[in-house]
């Protein structure tokens, strides 16, 4: 019905119609799928929440005399970086912790600073101490380096997240008789609370459940700057059970994302501490969905009540990798503040921020309407329901 | 009088003395212990909710101060940094007194100080360091 080129022409002319994935629901209810699909050109989706498999790679420039960081040791802001790359390249993951962090030695451990916080400080323009050592070679004689670095002086600083944007996620609860500290937050004993982590009807992959438009090469808003989908993410698992509208009932697809850290903002990349678990990075992502036809529009009109999520016991079943759930609940129930499990009214909390997600969807909408953000055609699809692609558990073999 | 929440700091030398019971015995004050702890330096911290006649309350507080207990109102102690808060709502279901609640429309998390008993669970749980507690 419409092509991305045609939509881009409208963006350039300034007469494109853009709605957020929440706004489009009302329009479809009012005008029906057919008319709404003719009216709307782009639907913006967004999410903001902790995404552990995030990280940055960066090139510090060569020191004089030269030092080979590769194979050596390096810390940024006291947090260890990965040095298995060439002389001046480093990688820092969001979950990295300082060597001297007390961690869980005093249970549960606070985890107030780590990789995610370093990334947030770096993108916010703070000077950070880089400390490194190498073994010294004829061509890279220097053995030690200690200097301040700033993002503006780095050659490249790139956010590269190997798993973001989970399409749906578990609702975490605790049936044991003691409090537990998890990556899904503090879970009170005996079903004291239930934590979820998805923007629901605003979340990118829940609005394109079969990945008809979002694919490799899709231009997105990442950390407030421009980014791209670089691949499907790790643990991508599209072949899970779905509703009759194609929405997965369990965690399914994931995306690997890349973008220039120098154009991003500390407002959308925030270091995050999960008490008793560790540190991570909260990432803001906005993905535009071009309304190419009625089918695609219908997917974007998905409501919170149409999206189901599994309730998982993080005291036993999750740690022991038992494939058991206590039932399915929908996001309208989750967002209402209470769900019912085993006849008990359980208060809910979200790890993902709907307020920040709405801001991102609005920012993306604004950039598209002002003509500064054009849409891209995916250069390749990511594995979908017909792919037989599955995320496998580890098969341990006797050594 | 209304119920009043106060924070009492007991110096080391007072920790093993029976003091709080005299609020009931001598001053007719009803109390409810919201939090009690003794830190590694053997100083004590007690958060109480008190109810009784205004005159008795004043006298009771006077008595505590004379004994060397430092008294401060509770409401100053827990605060929310709006700049850091992302409104994720992690704290909302943990708060035992519904002092943290989500606005159903905007999704914004509101901190209602009057309901806070300074248990500190929100401070521990907040992934963004937006909740602070000071005694």
Written description of the protein model:
- The complex is a heterodimer of chains A (about 400) and B (about 140).
- With about 400 residues, chain A is α+β, with helices and mostly antiparallel strands.
- Chain A has a domain at about 55-160.
- Helices cover about 15% and strands about 30% of the residues of chain A.
- In chain A, the strands form five sheets. In chain A, strands 1, 2, 3, 6, 9, 14, 15, 16, 17 and 18 form a ten-stranded mixed β-sheet that branches.
- In chain A, a hairpin with a 3-residue loop joins strand 17 and strand 18 (about 280-290).
- In chain A, helix 2 runs antiparallel to helix 5.
- Chain B is α+β, with helices and mostly antiparallel strands.
- Chain B has two domains: about 5-75, ACT domain (Alpha-Beta Plaits, 2-Layer Sandwich); about 80-135, Alpha-Beta Plaits (2-Layer Sandwich).
- Helices cover about 20% and strands about 30% of the residues of chain B.
- Chain B contains three helices and eight strands.
- Chain B has helices at about 20-25, 55-65, 120-125; strands at about 5-10, 30-40, 45-50, 70-75, 80, 100, 110, 130-135.
- In chain B, the strands form three sheets. In chain B, strands 2-3-1-4 form a four-stranded antiparallel β-sheet, with helices on one face. Chain B has a two-stranded antiparallel sheet with strand order 5-8. In chain B, strands 6-7 form a two-stranded antiparallel sheet.
- In chain B, strand 2 and strand 3 (about 45-50) form a beta hairpin.
- The relative contact order of chain B is 0.21.
- The mean pLDDT of chain B is about 90.
- The interface of A and B includes residues 110, 186, 351 and 352 of A.
